[in-house]
Amino acid sequence: MNRVSDELPELPEYAERVLDVAERIPPGRVMTYGDVAEWLGEGGPRQVGRVMALYGGGVPWWRVVRADGALLPGHELRALGHYREESTPLREASRSAEGHLPRLDMRRARWDGGGADEAGSRDGAGHEDIALAAGAEREVGGGAAHI
């Protein structure tokens, strides 16, 4: 019989890069799935969403959002708590909105990946160098993964 290993599988390189970007988004700011893909120069919104769904539990997942500003289905109340704690700009919901939940105010909350908030070095394209030091650990799916 084959035994299932207790070790977590190695995190794919693309997933590492997506999670690095999510960790860099300042409190009170957000990036869309498409913004993250564009910033990385590869993949698309669906690929970023898949990474966040599979591995995003150990990073500030609530800062990577849908382009329409709607709260993540199934996680609305948890995300809303984070947004209120971080003073993320919100738009109040209309009375006709389902569940009367607010949306993110994307014009005010959206972050372009730059600015004085960051301490990383910039490459020629103006992007932050988001590589983590070798041997750093990140919590993934309830455990820690070495990257």
What does this protein look like?
The model is unreliable at 1-5 and 116-147 (pLDDT under 50). α1 (13-24) packs across α3 and α2 crosses α3 (45-55). With 147 residues, this protein is α+β, with helices and mostly antiparallel strands. The protein is globular and about 45 Å long. The chain contains 5 helices and 6 strands, in the order αβααβαββαββ. A hairpin with a 2-residue loop joins β5 and β6 (143-146).
Instruction: Give helix and strand order, one letter per element, not per position.
Output: HEHHEHEEHEE
Distance between the amino and carboxyl termini: 30 Å
Shape: globular
What is the makeup of the main sheet?
Answer: 2 strands, parallel
**What is the number of strand segments?**
6
Enumerate the strands of the largest sheet in spatial order, edge to edge or round the barrel: 1-2
Task: Report the C-alpha radius of gyration, rounded.
Answer: 16 Å
What is the oligomer described by this structure? Answer: single chain
Structural class: alpha+beta
Number of helices: 5
- Bin the strand percentage: 5-15%
Low-confidence spans: 1-5, 116-147
Mean pLDDT: 78
Please estimate the helix content. Answer: 25-40%
